[in-house]
Amino acid sequence: MGWFDLLKQGLKKTSQVLNTDIRDLFKQEGRLVDDAFLTELFAILVRTDMGAGPAGEIRDQVRTEFRGRVVHMQDVLGTVRAKVREQLQQPEEPIQFANSGPTIVVVVGVNGSGKTTSIAKLTHMFKQQGKSVLLGAGDTFRAAAVRQLTIWAERLGAEIVTGNEGSDPASVAHRAVSQALEKNVDVCIIDTAGRLQTQTNLMNELAKIRRVITKQIDGAPHEVLLVLDATAGQNAISQAKGFSDAAGCTGIVLAKLDGTAKGGVVIAIRKQFDLPVKYIGTGEKSEDLALFNADEFVKALFE
Amino acid sequence: MLRQFPKSKMFESLQNGLQSAWKSVRGKGKLTEANMREGLAIVEQSLLEADVSYSVVQDFMGRVQEQALGQKVMQALDPGQQLIGVVRDELINLLGPVDSSLHLKSDTTVLMLCGLQGSGKTTTCAKLARLLLDNNVQSMLVAADLQRPAAIEQLHVNGDKLGVPVYSEPGAKDPVVVCQNAVKKAKAEGVRVVILDTAGRLAIDQQLMDELSLIDKRVAPDQVYLVVDGMTGQDAVNSAKSFNEALELNGVIMTKLDGDARGGALLSVKHVTGVPIKFIGTGEHLDALEPFRPEGMAGRILGLGDTLALVDEVRKIVDEDERQKWEEQAKKGEFTLDDFKLQMEKVAKPGLMQKMLGLLPGAAQLQEAMAGADSAKEAKRFIGMVNSMTPQERRNPKVIDPQRRARIAQGAGVQAQEVNQLVKNYEIMKQMVTGMANAGMGDRMRMLNQLKDGALMNPGAKLIKAKVGTGKRLSTEEKQKMKKLRERELKKRKRGGG
After folding, report:
1. Chain B residues inside the 8 Å CB shell of A244
2. Looking at beta carbons, which pairs linking A239-243 to residues 24 or more positions away fall under 8 Å?
3. Among A63, A87, A111, which residue terminates a domain?
4. Which chain B residues contact residue A158 at CB under 8 A?
5. How high is the mean pLDDT of chain A?
6. Which CATH number does the domain housing residue B450 bear?
7. Contact state of B120 with A145 under an 8 Å Cβ cutoff
8. Is this complex's ipTM strictly greater than 0.90?
9. Is A92 within the bounds of a domain?
């Protein structure tokens, strides 16, 4: 199955919600754009978690363009699609590989956002591309997190560097990068413990992990991926800010997009920050990862 | 290079929003219905930003509108406060009533936890076991999550930490059988409470929902609790609805509320299920499970902070006698370096300061300003310095001359200027403490706000500097200068950030 199909499949629910609801707005002959209509449109937009602000802007644009007219669905859909695409527009941006030597990828996020599963999916993807992968089990805090990653490493045929529970994650990262250099693997993915962006000392720990890696390889880590839960609401904006400030995120992995109809918070994040969504998680299996693409995302959203 | 983000408006509280919206009104002294509708729109926006689901917000606004447009609010001296009061009361009303009881039976009680993936079920199971342990009730944890790799092991590690038995069947395929066997075993051994940790699922996954229903039917748990991530967005209504339909929930536990999430999803979940909210999770450690209080949650959802929880937090570290003694001393203007040291010792716990700050209204910005300040570490340095002082120096730091200073610095292993810093901080603190002790409630709040604003005017300031900023009132000129600086900074950001 191509990635576009995967994406469509994952987004089917979202697409259904949006399509059905918008179709309901317009009876066959079209419908007058009045306050009641605009309120209904606003409700549909807010339900995608894009946030009251961006949803309000879209509503206002529709109001300006269509006020008092009897419209057809495709007209309004076209406007909404154009507006959302405009907000999400970005170059298609896969992982930036190092020019030579191992590419270091650090994965960060709040507790339960789906970091470990996303790492498994990334590992699978790199292996499919014929690359060798080494994992650094940097979540030394949560009970059995190391074990969870080890199971994935065994399943996917990746090497893994671990530390004891409670040991310094920066030292695990350091050892992982050293081994990656020594064995000349293509990609080294460092897992980190889930943390909330308001926990200053834990955010400092991320900054330390970053510093340690930079000392070993100039220009590393090449990617710092923030894993966001697609069911998250507006707090994801605070997450994007907090983690980027501490760890210098280079992109977002939007996980659990298949589970629900949502994921619209990336629209708000794109609007506020210069942080691209790189991948989307569309299922529970290790192959359920697709490249994020604004055009296709919007197309699949309203198709 | 690290990306720096412009400060967004997301932390702007409802209070500020209403204040700025009604600034013009106040001058004229009259509030029209149109103004009030504008205010209501701000309340609506604020609730949506707190992630309350759209349909729930509509329903809620319907409830408060009538009251807001009534004479009492419209003609109040401060309609903004009145409106917030109405909204807050209605929130408390909807989030309540309180029922943190686990409804234990005289024999074995079976609790079942369910929820979406990553909501925090396994951690919450362990927290419940810990809570029971604190009340001398023996429990047994059951690893019924056979989906996620190492979930069983995670429960075992937590169980070992607490000294609570964990039941699991290695290689088992059917969670129903595991639960049945576990309950049988618990009953045979006379264990009071069995806690079932089920697999996380996606609400739309019918197969896994059926599995949950089957456990519910076959094992017949006495209480079924839904675990909800505090950061959940609009979708909360959908997932809560499907869980409630499949399982008939008895209660809700919301997790991850130690961060800056406003947790509006809780209102959605309550609205859909109608079952009581039992506990909230406020940290990663196993004792961080608190009985739910609608008052605190209402303040949080509205972005008003939770001052009651702050008082609780302070009570936890300072007992009442001690507090009274301090208060008396402070009233007399007595506050020595020894007292300062004692206070420092109380807060010299990692993360405690941040946690307490997080409970202050509008404290998100304060926390940001404090980012990078390791207050626990700094407190420890202070303690070290005070320890190196003679009793005389502690009573009267004015006697500390360069010679004494060098001795103290050497003793504590710090730079001499840090001793200066300590004395300076102590003096500011003394001013605040003795000032506060003699101030009324209103003045205290004002001082607290001054402290907050001090940190805001100086973003990026460390703890020490934040305190310096509050010690003296700025002159009008200084304030003007600050304002200009801020405005210039804002303009720069606007231009740069596009």
Report:
1. 2-3, 5
2. A239/A109, A239/A110, A239/A197, A239/B231, A240/A269, A240/A272, A240/A273, A240/A275, A240/B5, A241/A197, A241/A273, A241/B5, A241/B8, A242/A197, A242/A198, A242/A203, A243/A108, A243/A109, A243/A197, A243/A203, A243/A206
3. A87
4. none
5. 85
6. 1.10.260.30
7. no
8. no
9. no
